[in-house]
Design brief:
Length: 550
C-alpha cells in the first residue's frame, strides 16, 4: 500500500482526499526514491506493511524494452495496449536517509482551508436547536399549568409557613459544603495532570501495572467470595482473572505500540491542555442542563394519560441527546487538536495559532450537524433501553414480560456500547477531514474491516490505564475532601468523603475521555496518513513503525 499524498506538495490537515480514494501520482525524483514515500530502506515493515508486487505486470516494469505482441494478436482489440518505456533504475541506499520534506504551496493552503467551509448535516443541527427551544417552551407551559389543591395541601402549607428558618445558618453550612467540594475538585484536577505526566514518562510500565492490577483485583474478589461462602461467585471471578491473564499474555507484544501512542498523546495534551479545560467546562454545562431537565420533569408530572407517556419518552430522548452532543463536541475538539499536531508539527509551515480554539470552532459550526446526527442515534437507543427499564420496574407483563424486558435491555445495552464505540472513530474522521457523518461512517467501516483488530486491542490496553486513573483520582479527592471536612464539618466528614469521591471521579473521567479521544485520533491518522508523520516527525514515525511490527 502506498502513501496518499497531495499533488505538488505535502499532505496537510485536513487531507483533501478521504480514506479509500486514489491520490494523484507525483513526479519521480531519482534523488529521493519514489516521491512522497519513505526511502527504500523504510519500505519494508512500516505500517501498514506493503504487499509484495508480482514479478511481472506491475510498476515499475521489467528493465528491458517492451516487446511487441504476437503476430496473431489483434491490435485493434479493446483495450488498446500502451507502449511502455523502461523506468529509471531504482536507487537503493546503503545507509538510512531521512524522509524527504514536502512543502505546501499557498494555493494548496487556500484549497485545504477555504474561507467559507461547507456546513455538514446542517438540518440536524437546526433540529437539535429547535428541540432545545421546545424544552424551554414545555417548561414554561408546564410551570403555568395549575393543579387543584386539596385540604391536605392547605394544611401542609400552613405547617410549612410556621417553621422558622435561619437564612444565615443555611448559607454558612452551604459555604462549608462548597469549600469541601472545591477542595476535592482541585485535588482531582491536580491529580489528572500528575497522572498524565506519569503516563507520558512511563507509559509501558503504567499499562503493565494496570493489567496486573486488574488480575489481582479479580483474585482478591474471588478470595472474599470464598471466605463469605459464595463459591459459585468465587469460581466465576477466578475464571475472569484467568481470562485477564490470558489476554495479558496474548497482547504482550502489542504493549510497546500502545505505550508509544499513549506517550505521544500525553506529550501533546501537556503542551496543549485546553481540551482538558473544555472538558471540565462541559461538565458544568451538563450539570446545568441536568438541573433544567429535572425541573422540567417535575413540572410535567401534572400531565396524565397518554400525554404523560409521550412527554416522558420525549424528555428522556432530550436528556440523552443533549448529553451526547456536549460529550461529542469535546471529542471532536480534541481530535481536531491532535490532527493539527499530526499534520503540522514539524512541517515547514509549523503549528497554527490557537489550534484548540480552531478545532472547537469547527466542532460548534461546520461539524455540529454531523455531531447532532451521530449523537441522536445513540440517544434513541438509550431512550428505548430506559423505557424498557421503566416498564420492567413497574412489573408490567408479569414473569414473561420481565424475562423479555431483561433480554431487550441486554441487547440494547450491547448495541448502545457498539454504536458509541463506532461513533468515536466516525467523529474522529469528522474532525480530521470535515466529512459528513454518513461519509465518515462508511470510511470508518472500511477502516474497521482492515484495521479493526488493531484499534480494539490498542483501546483495550489503554482503557485499563484510564479506568485505574479514574479510581485513583476519586480516592485522592475523597482523602482531601475528608481532611477538609474534618475541620469544617466534622460531624459529616464520612458523607462528604463519599461525595468528594464521586465528584473527583467525574472530573478525572472527563480528563481521561480527552486522552481516549486523542489516542483514537493518533491511531486513525497513523493508519490513514503514515507518510505525513514520516515527513514531519521521522523519529516518532520510526518508533511507532518499529513497535507495531514487533
Amino acid at each position: 500500500m502506498g502513501y496518499p499524498e497531495q499533488e505538488g506538495g505535502p499532505p496537510v490537515y485536513p487531507p483533501s482526499q478521504p480514506y479509500g480514494h486514489p491520490h494523484p501520482a507525483a513526479p519521480y525524483d531519482p534523488h529521493a526514491g519514489v516521491y512522497g514515500a519513505p526511502p527504500p530502506h523504510q519500505q519494508q515493515g512500516y505500517y501498514p506493511p506493503p504487499t509484495a508486487p508480482p514479478p511481472h505486470g506491475a510498476y515499475p516494469p521489467p528493465q528491458h524494452a517492451y516487446s511487441p505482441p504476437p503476430a496473431h494478436y489483434d491490435q485493434g482489440a479493446y483495450p488498446p495496449q500502451p507502449m511502455y518505456v523502461a523506468a529509471p533504475p531504482v536507487v537503493v541506499y546503503a545507509a538510512p536517509l531521512p524522509p524527504p520534506v514536502m512543502q505546501m504551496t499557498p494555493e494548496q493552503m487556500q484549497h485545504m482551508f477555504p474561507q467559507k467551509p461547507k456546513y455538514q448535516d446542517l438540518p440536524w443541527a437546526i433540529l437539535f436547536i429547535l428541540h432545545l427551544v421546545s424544552i424551554i417552551v414545555l417548561l414554561a407551559i408546564s410551570y403555568n399549568k395549575t393543579t387543584p389543591s386539596t385540604d391536605s395541601d392547605e394544611i401542609n402549607r400552613g405547617k410549612d409557613s410556621g417553621n422558622n428558618f435561619s437564612t444565615e445558618t443555611f448559607f454558612l453550612e452551604l459555604g462549608r459544603f462548597l469549600g469541601v467540594i472545591l477542595a476535592a475538585s482541585g485535588a482531582a484536577i491536580i491529580f489528572s495532570f500528575i497522572y498524565l505526566s506519569l503516563t507520558k514518562r512511563h507509559p509501558k510500565a503504567v499499562i503493565k501495572a494496570t493489567l496486573v492490577l486488574s488480575i489481582l483485583v479479580w483474585i482478591a474478589l474471588a478470595i472474599i467470595s470464598f471466605l463469605t461462602g459464595s463459591y459459585i461467585m468465587g469460581i466465576i471471578m477466578i475464571v475472569i482473572a484467568l481470562l485477564n491473564a490470558l489476554v495479558f499474555w496474548m497482547w504482550r507484544k502489542r504493549i510497546p505500540f500502545a505505550a508509544a501512542i499513549l506517550s505521544s498523546v500525553c506529550k501533546v495534551l501537556l503542551r496543549f491542555p485546553a481540551p482538558s479545560y473544555f472538558s471540565y467546562l462541559s461538565g458544568l454545562v451538563l450539570l446545568g442542563w441536568t438541573v433544567l431537565w429535572l425541573i422540567t420533569v417535575s413540572q410535567c408530572q401534572k400531565y396524565t394519560g397518554y400525554a404523560s407517556g409521550i412527554l416522558t419518552a420525549y424528555l428522556f430522548l432530550s436528556f440523552f441527546w443533549t448529553t451526547q452532543v456536549v460529550k461529542n463536541v469535546v471529542h471532536v475538539c480534541t481530535s481536531g487538536l491532535m490532527a493539527s499536531y499530526y499534520f503540522y508539527s514539524g512541517s515547514p509551515n509549523g503549528m497554527p495559532g490557537n489550534p484548540t480554539l480552531g478545532a472547537l470552532k469547527r466542532a460548534c459550526t461546520t461539524s455540529f450537524g454531523s455531531i447532532c446526527l451521530g449523537s441522536l442515534i445513540v440517544a434513541v437507543i438509550k431512550t428505548l433501553r430506559q423505557l424498557v427499564q421503566n416498564a420492567r420496574n413497574n412489573n408490567k407483563g408479569g414473569v414473561v414480560g420481565a424475562v423479555l424486558a431483561c433480554i431487550a435491555i441486554c441487547i440494547l445495552s450491547i448495541l448502545e456500547r457498539l454504536v458509541e464505540y463506532f461513533n468515536m472513530y466516525a467523529f474522529t474522521q469528522v474532525a480530521i477531514y470535515g466529512k459528513s457523518f454518513c461519509q465518515a461512517s462508511k470510511d470508518t467501516w472500511n477502516l474497521f474491516k482492515s484495521n479493526g483488530a488493531d484499534a480494539i486491542i490498542n483501546d483495550n490496553l489503554i482503557s485499563g490505564v484510564l479506568v485505574v486513573g479514574t479510581i485513583l483520582g476519586g480516592c485522592f479527592a475523597a482523602v482531601v475532601g475528608a481532611v477538609v471536612a474534618h475541620f469544617l464539618i466534622p460531624q459529616s466528614w464520612v458523607l462528604l468523603a463519599i461525595v468528594s469521591f464521586l465528584v473527583g471521579a467525574c472530573l478525572v473521567t472527563l480528563a481521561m475521555e480527552v486522552i481516549e479521544s486523542a489516542v483514537a485520533t493518533m491511531l486513525v491518522c497513523f493508519v490513514l496518513e503514515p507518510a505525513v508523520l514520516a515527513n514531519n516527525n521521522p523519529e516518532l514515525f520510526t518508533r511507532l513503525r518499529d513497535k507495531y511490527n514487533r
